[in-house]
Amino acid sequence: MYFDDTSEEQRLFEDIQFKRRVQFVDDESVIDIAVIPSAKSSEKSEVVSQGCQVNIKNGIESSLTQTRSKKHKEIQTENETNYHNNQDGDQKKLRRILEKRTYLIEDAILENLNSNAFLNYDVDWYGDDSVITNPFTLINKQFLKDEESQVVDVEWNSSGTTICCGFGRYDHESVCIHKGALATWNIDRLKMDPNKPENMIETPSCVSSIATHPEHPAVIAVGLFNGEIHVYDVRQNDPLVATVTDKKEMHTDEITSLKWVKDPKSSKKKYLLLSTSKDGKILIWNALPTKNQLKLIDGFLMLNDYLANRHLKSFGSEMSVSSISMNKLDRESFIVGCDSGGLFKCSFSNTEIVNSKWEDEFPVELKSPVQFTFDSQFGPIYSINYSPFHRNLILTCGTDSEIKLYSILQTDSLVTFCPENGYLYDIEWSPIRPCVFASASNDGNLLLYDLMENGKEICQTIKASEGSLYSLNFNQSRPELLATGDNLGVVKIWKLSSKYCKSSSSELYILNEISEKPFEKS
After folding, report:
1. Are 164 and 210 in contact (CB under 8 A)?
2. How many CB atoms lie within 10 A of CB 430?
3. Mean pLDDT by 10 residues, the chain (522 residues)
4. In this structure, which long-range contacts are made by residues 93-102, counting pairs with CB atoms below 8 Å and at least 24 apart in sequence?
5. Rounded to the nearest 5 degrees, what angle is found at the Cα of 361, between the Cα atoms of 359 and 367?
6. Could you give the dihedral angle defined by the CA atoms of residues 140, 146, 152 and 157, in that order, rounded to the nearest 10 degrees?
7. Residue 226: what are its φ and ψ, rounded to 5°?
């Protein structure tokens, strides 16, 4: 039936603002349902009855009575108070059941802890795939159209979703006259364009190094060939949030490495920016985004006084710093590699002031960080990497075409690998497999080493580029992903096979054995 506009029941029905209840009556039961008010309250409400009678309950006595508890045959509607009372009752019942059975659960847990049923069993989280694939190939076409540029550095952001790439050139003959760029791709974005980065920031000079912030995914530090350092936040309309404002504090040559490091002098979780350069200086900066400034707070200078085979004629000269690696298990320690082939264990706590031509004119007193000198290598050391699983093991590579594994407790290398792939530009330990590391070679090959293997199986070679492979980086959040960049301006994302993602309980034992005695290769 239709409602009569002049009836009292209709007026009461329209006065109820939140919920209104209508009874549908059939031959067997009475059903109570809620009707949501219409957006146009002035329009007539209309209910069409098909084979049943519709009535407004005459028991509504006034407009103040809007909700009631009703009981019907087979159907019951309860108010919120009854609902919460029943919920509290259920929780009490559940608590009594758990209290009675707690001792059984505790006994089962203790039995599992003392059981050897799953001893030496490794869970397979990655399936049984045995092939390394290349799901993404990224090219900054628009920038490469205007500039003949190379990918000199790649690094994942802290969330593991975005790959950040630095574009520049290594073949400068004198002053850099090229433009550089920072580009980012979010590989999780549904409509990601592999030929167009999500963010691209042009720089006044070639990019030579980048470093993503350990906690803020959008913050990236960029070092340039002309010695400038910029910090960008790619979320901002004006992304440049900090830079060196005092020219006296700037590096005077190419930035070779940037690292975000925890402040060794602070108990708080505060990050500082460390930079190295071919001018021999290692500088520490405090980023102040509110002032758009990088504030210089400390500095070190590498002199060739500490070289194992130094020449008296060059005594007291600065050494070009080519690479650096921080010890994640010791805030104070780091390793420095130089273009001279020198390799040094260093510390932030050193206080020895060095005598050099920078002493009178540089804004802060420069100190020598050197604590220990390793045997010199033949040619520049392009990359160093501390093991994330062993505080004493490091890897190095460079122009001598060799990969050397060192213990920081002795001067000579424990193991030397000779892959015969030309210059080796980058090297890095796996973040999940203690015995796995990767290296980028001049002939375009990605070299994957597994110290658990023997003979030829110890190294797997992947043709990653038709040119030279300059950089690589493991994804710390998603260790099955690895990024590479080459001199043709191409970035590739590799998905590693399960072999390189499943760690074994015996790997740390193998690393400890290697650190104590030379590794026997068969």
Report:
1. yes
2. 23
3. 48 48 45 47 42 42 45 49 64 84 86 78 61 94 86 96 95 84 95 94 95 95 95 94 91 95 78 95 90 92 79 69 92 92 92 72 89 90 95 94 93 91 95 95 95 83 95 95 96 94 86 74 40
4. none
5. 30
6. -40
7. -85, 5
Q: Indicate the length of the chain as a whole number.
A: 522
CB 180 within 8 A of CB 120: no
- Considering just the CA atoms, what is the radius of gyration of the chain in Å? 34
Q: Which residue has tokens 């007291």?
A: 316
Q: Rounded CA gap, 453 and 521, in Å? A: 10
Only one residue has tokens 């199986």, namely 457
Name 470's Cβ contacts closer than 8 Å, sequence gap at least 6: 150, 151, 152, 153, 170, 425, 426, 440, 485, 486, 487
Measured between alpha carbons, how far is residue 233 from residues 154, 263, 393, 424 in Å? 17, 21, 34, 32
- The C-alpha atoms of residue 281 and residue 63 are separated, in whole angstroms, by 83
Q: How far apart are CA 197 and CA 490, in angstroms?
A: 12
Structure tokens at 318: 């600065």
d(CA 344, CA 282): 13
Which residue type sits at 121?
Y
- Check: CB of residue 263 under 8 Å from CB of residue 273: no
HEC profile of 21-47 = EEEEECCCCEEEEEECCCCCCCCCCEC
Residue reference for tokens 């549904």: 190
Contact between residue 320 and residue 208 where contact means Cβ atoms under 8 Å apart: no
Closest CA to 212 of 176, 161, 147: 161
Q: Tell me, what amino acid is at 495?
A: K
In the numeric block, which tokens belong to residue 27? 């031959």
Asked whether 90 and 98 are in contact (CB, 8 A), the reply is: no
CB 294 within 8 A of CB 230: no
